[in-house]
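Researcher: Re-running this chain for the archive, since the previous output was lost when a drive failed. Same request as before.
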Amino acid sequence: MRSILLAVVALFLAAPSYGLDPTRYLSQYGHTAWRLQDGAFAGAPDAIAQTTDGYLWLGTQSGLLRFDGVRFVPFAPPTTERLFYPSIVSLLGTKDGSLWIGTGTGLYRLKEGGFTALELRGQINDIHEDAKGDVWIVRARAGEEAPALCKVRGTESKCYGKDEGVPVPFAGELASDVLGNIWVGSTIQLVRWPRNTSSFTYTLPGMPGNAVLDGISALAPLPDGSILVGARYHGVGLQILSNDHWKAYALPGFDGRSLAVTALLLDRENSLWIGTQDEGIYRVVAGKVDRFRGADGLSGDTVANFYEDHEGNVWVVTPNGIDRFRNMSVVSFSKHEGLSADMVHAVLAARDNTIWLGNGGALDSLNQDQVSSIAGPRLPGKTTTSLLEDHEGRLWVGIDDQLAVLTNGKFIPIKKKDGRPTGTVISMAEDSDHNIWAHVLPNALLRIKEDQVQEEIPGSKIPYTYTIVPDPQGGIWLGFSEDRLARYHDGQLQIFTSEQPPPRGTVSSIVISADGFVLGGSGRGLIALHSGTVHTLTAKNGLPCERIDSMLSDNQKNLWLYMRCGLVEISAADLAAWWKAPDATVNFRSFDAFDGVHPGHPPFQPTAAAAPDGRLWFANENVIQVIDPMHLRRNTLPPPVHIEQVVADRKIYSSNRDLNLPALTKDLRIDYTALSFVVPEKVRFRYRLDGHDRAWEEAGTRRQAFYSDLGPGDYQFHVIAANNDGIWNAAGASLRVSVAAAWYQTQSFKVLCALLGGFLVWCIYHVRVRQLAATMGARFDERMAERTRLAQELHDTLLQTIQGTKMVADDALDESTDFERMRATMRRVSQWLGQATQEGRAALSSLRVSVTARNDLAEAFGRAADDCLIHRAMEVNLSVIGEPREMHPIARDEVYRIGYEAIRNACSHSGGTRLTIQLTFAQDLSLRVSDNGTGMDIRIAEHGKDGHFGLRGMHERAARIGGKISIWSSAESGTDISLVVPGKIIFRGMHERPKSLLAKIKDAVLRRAPSDPS
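Model: Regenerated structure tokens:
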């Protein structure tokens, strides 16, 4: 399975890719250096290679490093094998996924995690794979009789020496050509070793016989079958062997023999890279020579090796570090490329594709990327400002405080009507009537026709103007401060301002689109005007920033914004869609510093220009930058994705197989990478853990995933990545992760817990049912007792009265002729019926009246005493001792019913003349009801009278609320009933300290005169 994956990866990486753009200077590539002095690696590098899985490998004097574009990871052999000699001399990544490692003592092979030492001893100077997949090596220091050339297939090797046509005792360089020849370079001899015919040996011309260390150092076969040979010896340098004849490699102004050549590379664009001993890099493209060395940023002037990776980047190895050269979407021209200065503040693209630059004290021009300048005595001034090409192809140039026209190589000044200079020109434009409009300092707008100033509009009539463009309908468009666009035509100025406050930008560039939109670039975003309506495109619509320094349209009508955060492209279709929905997010493509963008804001116009060849030019006040939208070299290779390691609870696990983690693993970290070396800093990642994540996590450029809440179970981790141009590798990489369960996390334990939980719920349910049944039974018993008491009370009062009334009526009916007796009888019946009514009301009152809604027991007992006076005349004394306190309603109601029963019994059965009711609020609640009647038998007081339930009910109610009731009675002093209820039971808020230690006594004595018994 792994071999199939490697084969797929090999095909994947074999997809066509661009090399470095040969039309660019070396200084215009993206260049990055990793230097030894910065701690990137420990030993001086010497060799570099890339394997089919995408990793770069760096051989140094202290060992082997693996590189993913961000991190250098030292290589540790996965088995007991080890490198006997840590200094790496040569490296090769072959088509089968192997990495071949040549050291000072032997040859090793790393494949699919297996590390093997081969039986080839000596210093392995070079390793090469031919078109058939055979691996060849050349070596030295292997012994006097050891052949210099060997072929390796698998673990078997075969060497070729003098008898096989390779007469050199040692060799340092190796190559194969398009005809299948193997080329072996020794000191001064070059051997061509055909497989089926005899070999040929060539002696490098001009080399002294003792130049052992300065001999052949590099080989580069050419497409025509010839071969380039480099030597470290000055005077020999670079030679070509073609048709068995030597000739020096020379070009106009460049003699290859003067170089001490150390490395050669012919890249996929047929550019020749030449590494030297102490002069850095030379590159030859189509007969033109370019150079890059330490002074330009190269890690060192001595070049040890070159390598071109799968994406077309070129790597340079020096003793001080490694360097990478890559394509840039945006290219800069500066003094290094031939400009007169790094002060470019205006750019103009002429109709003949010449690019004119206002560059400080010179007027530079670029023609086919070749620079020429007008400066010094040829320039009538010290500083160039604004530029314009008119309809006749003439160049208008602002120079110091005047305006001039370049005609036939001479500058013709433009004067005002009074002969004075025009002033410093900030911006210019030519309208449809061929008027030249110029904004000059101090603030004024000039109209020039036929090289004469026809009109001067002072600043008092027109605001300060930053940019001018012609209106296809006639007149001009102007850009002002405070985000204002204005149209000037036939002497009329019409200003348009965005309605979206606050205006804070300056319209420094204007573009008139083909469909009639007027677009202004300001410090607040893009201002769009159409049919009198103004909309503004800002960061709220998704722009990466808001300040626009310059902008223009390309040949496809797409809009390009040169902004402080980079270069942004918005297609014509996306711009039209935004206009219809101004609050929507706009789609765009952006280029940043990694793509070569270095924004700036020049003081003069124009700051951007679209050339007829489709290229877009932007001045940034220092250099001139260019992008070619039609020929952008996109990185089309999806990056290979790898999961490198897993760290769980600080323990490192291999990611080469399914991962089984112990129970209770808490912290999990997964390290992954994607191998794209164009701009590794822009590689983006997404990951998802099946079984945990519901959707893809956007990791950005982060190369680690963290989890701290994984439970036991099986998971599948997936990670995908996109390269710098947004090309995704949707297959990515995956890893199965299994977290074991602790004993209490197992399924059987969970089932057991569920069963125990169910049983516990069943038990609680049945206990609760029994509690509810007991409570309801108690309530039923209470109701039954109350109903029994009321029934007895009704029987002893109301029913007896009614029965007596019936007997009186029956007696009167026996002698119905005695009217006086009948009248007396009816009077007695009326009195008894009245008594029955009162007794019925008293019974109903005992049913309906509750003190649960009120807290005044004294008032309730007063009403009970009033009802008592209906039956007989008694003196009632009601007193309250202490501050009344809030009571629990149920307990309060029970106290009331006990007191009501005691008052009623005193009124109905005591026969006394005085009733005393005393209610005391102290630590506990006390109630005392006493009379001066005849008293009762002690047995009745303790157990109640048979068939009567009043006293029994009083004892039962007192017991329910935790109270204690006492009954004392005698024939001489009456009956005394007292009830004490603990305060903790009846009073609310007993945990709070009372406000006063002394009880306040409140006496309320109700004195009522005896009732009239009639």
